[in-house]
Write a structure and sequence with these properties.
This is Septin spn4. The protein is mostly helical. 29% of the residues lie in helices and 0% in strands.
Length: 70
């Protein structure tokens, strides 16, 4: 008896089975983006996922940090 092409059993079908599982459950992963200030890390992440995952920082506050006197 020959296996049918739609049965989804066997080593050849592992990628398809994995895709089905991830499609149903979703997937978690970690992404690390490195770079200097102002090179577009946040824009890259937001563009990669076509959404606003990480919001923009308030650029007006970047120079407002107080320096402690030592």
């Amino acid at each position: 008896m020959a296996p049918s092409a739609t049965s989804g059993v066997g080593v050849a079908h592992l990628p398809n089975q994995r895709h089905k599982i991830v499609s149903k459950r979703g997937a978690n992963f970690t992404l690390m983006v490195c770079g200097e200030s102002g090179v577009g890390k946040t824009t890259f992440v937001n563009t990669l996922f076509t959404t606003g995952i990480k919001g923009q920082k308030d650029l007006n506050k970047r120079h407002a940090k107080q320096i402690e006197k030592t």
